[in-house]
Design brief:
By secondary structure, the chain is α+β, with helices and mostly antiparallel strands. It is rod-shaped, with a radius of gyration of 65 Å. A hairpin with a 4-residue loop joins strand 2 and strand 3.
Length: 509
C-alpha cells in the first residue's frame, strides 16, 4: 500500500540508516559512471562564419531606374538551400584540405556518408538585421574550423555565380524576345506595305470629299440642263412662227454685202470653234447659196450693179439667227447631258470605291493595331534589354547585392554542447540523488505497513499506540562503526572523484 507523503522523508532517512553500505555503493557507482561517461562522451565542436548582406551600397541609388540589382529574399533560407545543394556539398566531400590527399579517390559509399554527415551537421541561422551565420559541428575541432571556413567561401562563390547566371539568363531571354518582336514587326510592316500597294483607293475622307464634289457638279449640270431644255423649247417655238424665206428684189451688190457679213461671222466663229461646229457648217452653206444667187443675178442683169432682181426667194435673217441660236442651244444641251451621264457614272464608281474602302478599313485597322501593339512591346523590351545589360555588367563586376564575410571562422577551443565539467558536477549531484530517489520509489511500492495512517486507511479503525524499534548497545556501537567506516569511504571516494576531475580539467589525463 502507498506510503503517505508526510511520512516519506522519515522513512527515507530510516532506510538510509538501515542500508548505509547500499547507499554508499549506489552513490559511488552512479557518480563514477557519470564521470566515465564524461570521458567517453563524443563532444561536438562548432565553428561558424558570419556573413553580411551588403544591399545598401552606393551603386543602388546611382543606377536606380537604369538597372535592376539582383535581390535575394529570405537570406537564411536561400543560404541553406544553396549550401545543401549536392554539387556544393560534393565539393566539400572531395576537398583534400579537409579529408586528405585521397579525398577525390574514394568509393561512392564513403562519398555518400560524407555528404550525409555534412548536410546533417551544417547549420544556417539568422544573426539579426543583414547578418546570418553558417556553422558546422564536428567531433574534430580542426575539421569543424576548416569546413565552416570552406562553407563561407563556397556560399559567396556560389551566390556570385548564381547572380551572374541569373542576370545573364535574364538578358538572353529579353534579347530573344526583342529579336522575335523585330521579326514580327518586319512581317507586319510587309503586310501593311502589300496592303497599301494592292489597295490604292485612298482614305474614307478623301472618298467622301470627292463624292461631295461630284454630287455638287451633278446638281449644277442638271440645273444647266434644265435651263438649256427651256431655251431649246423657247427657240423652237419662236422658229415655228417665222417664215424661213423672204421674196424680194435683189441686186448683185446686196448679195455681196450679205456674203461679206456672213464671212465676217464665219471668221469670228472659227476663232472659237472647229469647222465641224454646226453654226460654222450652216454659215458655209448660206455663203455658198448666196454666191450662187449673186452669180445668177449678175447673169440676169448682164453685169449691172444697180439693177434689181425681182421674184427671188432669200433666207430670212431672223429665222437664220434663231436657227443658229437653236443649234447652239441643242449642242450645249447634248454636251450637258453627256457631262451628266459622265458624272453619274463617276458617282457610281465612287460609291463602289467607298464600299471597297469600308471593306478594307477593317483589315487596315487590324494591321495597324498589330503594328501599334508590337511596336509598343518592342520599345518596352528594348528598354528592358538595356537595363538587363547594365544589370549583367553590375553582377559581373560584383556590384549590387553582395555577400561579405563579416566575421571569419574561429578555431573552437571548447565543445559547443555539454562539457566535461558539466558531467563532473552532474556526477556528484546524481550520485547523491540516486539513492534517495531509489528508496522513495521502493517505499511507494513496498506492501509492508510503515505508518499508522496506512493501517487506519486500510482497516478503518484508529491506532491507539505505536511501539518504536528498540536497539541494544551492541547494535548501536556496530551502527556507529559502520557509519564512521562508510563516511571514510565516502570522503575517499569524493576526494578521488575530485582529483580525477581536476586532472582531467588541467589536461593531465
Amino acid at each position: 500500500m502507498a506510503l503517505p507523503l508526510s511520512s516519506l522523508p522519515v522513512e527515507i532517512l530510516r532506510e538510509v540508516r538501515a542500508r548505509k553500505w547500499l547507499v554508499f555503493i549506489v552513490f559511488a557507482l552512479v557518480s563514477f559512471a557519470v564521470l566515465a561517461t564524461g570521458f567517453f562522451w563524443p563532444y561536438q565542436y562548432k565553428s561558424q562564419v558570419t556573413i553580411f548582406v551588403d544591399d545598401q551600397n552606393i551603386i543602388g541609388p546611382l543606377m536606380e531606374g537604369s538597372a535592376v540589382t539582383t535581390k535575394i529574399s529570405e537570406q537564411t533560407s536561400s543560404a541553406r538551400q544553396t549550401l545543401a545543394n549536392r554539387d556544393v556539398v560534393a565539393q566539400l566531400a572531395t576537398d583534400p584540405d579537409i579529408y586528405g590527399p585521397d579525398a577525390r579517390n574514394t568509393s561512392d559509399e564513403v562519398l555518400e556518408s560524407r555528404i550525409l554527415a555534412l548536410r546533417s551537421n551544417m547549420s544556417v541561422r539568422p544573426a539579426g538585421g543583414s547578418y546570418f551565420s553558417i556553422g558546422y559541428s564536428s567531433e574534430s575541432p580542426i575539421q569543424a574550423f576548416r569546413i565552416s571556413q570552406k562553407l563561407g567561401q563556397l556560399f559567396i562563390a556560389e551566390s556570385s555565380e548564381r547572380k551572374r547566371s541569373e542576370s545573364r539568363s535574364a538578358y538572353n531571354f529579353i534579347d530573344k524576345q526583342v529579336k522575335s518582336y523585330e521579326r514580327q514587326l518586319a512581317d507586319v510592316e510587309k503586310r501593311l506595305q502589300n496592303f497599301l500597294s494592292e489597295n490604292k483607293e485612298g482614305t474614307e475622307g478623301e472618298a467622301s470629299s470627292r463624292m461631295n464634289r461630284l454630287k455638287s457638279q451633278l446638281e449644277l449640270a442638271e440645273m444647266e440642263k434644265t435651263e438649256l431644255e427651256s431655251r431649246v423649247q423657247s427657240l423652237q417655238n419662236q422658229l415655228s412662227d417665222i417664215d424661213p424665206t423672204l421674196r424680194q428684189g435683189r441686186t448683185a451688190d446686196s448679195f455681196q454685202q450679205r456674203i461679206s457679213s456672213m464671212e465676217s461671222q464665219l471668221d469670228d466663229l472659227r476663232l472659237r470653234y472647229l469647222d465641224s461646229y454646226p453654226d460654222i457648217v450652216i454659215l458655209k452653206e448660206q455663203i455658198a447659196e448666196l454666191r450662187k444667187q449673186r452669180q445668177r443675178a449678175i447673169e440676169q442683169g448682164e453685169g449691172g450693179t444697180g439693177q434689181a432682181v425681182s421674184g427671188e426667194d432669200i433666207v430670212n435673217p431672223i429665222y437664220q439667227d434663231i436657227r443658229s441660236s437653236l443649234s447652239k442651244a441643242q449642242a450645249d444641251l447634248q454636251t450637258t447631258s453627256t457631262r451628266i451621264d459622265s458624272l453619274n457614272r463617276l458617282i457610281a464608281e465612287q460609291e463602289q470605291r467607298m464600299d471597297r474602302i469600308q471593306e478594307n478599313k477593317t483589315q487596315y485597322s487590324e494591321i495597324t493595331r498589330d503594328m501599334d501593339v508590337n511596336t509598343q512591346i518592342y520599345n518596352d523590351l528594348l528598354k528592358r534589354r538595356e537595363r538587363a545589360r547594365v544589370s549583367m555588367h553590375l553582377d559581373v563586376e560584383g556590384q549590387g547585392l553582395n555577400y561579405q564575410i563579416y566575421e571569419s571562422a574561429q578555431f573552437p577551443t571548447a565543445p559547443s554542447d555539454m562539457q566535461f565539467s558539466t558531467f563532473a558536477f552532474a556526477g556528484l549531484f546524481l550520485g547523491v540523488l540516486a539513492p534517495f530517489g531509489a528508496l522513495a520509489g521502493l517505499l511507494q511500492i513496498d506492501p509492508r505497513v510503515r505508518a499508522r495512517q496506512q493501517l487506519e486507511n486500510a482497516v478503518g479503525l484508529p491506532v491507539l499506540a505505536e511501539i518504536p524499534p528498540v536497539r541494544t548497545p551492541y547494535e548501536k556501537r556496530r551502527d556507529r562503526w559502520v557509519t564512521i567506516t562508510i563516511s571514510v569511504f565516502a570522503v575517499v571516494a569524493v576526494v578521488t572523484y575530485t582529483g580525477i576531475v581536476g586532472a582531467a580539467l588541467m589536461g593531465v589525463i
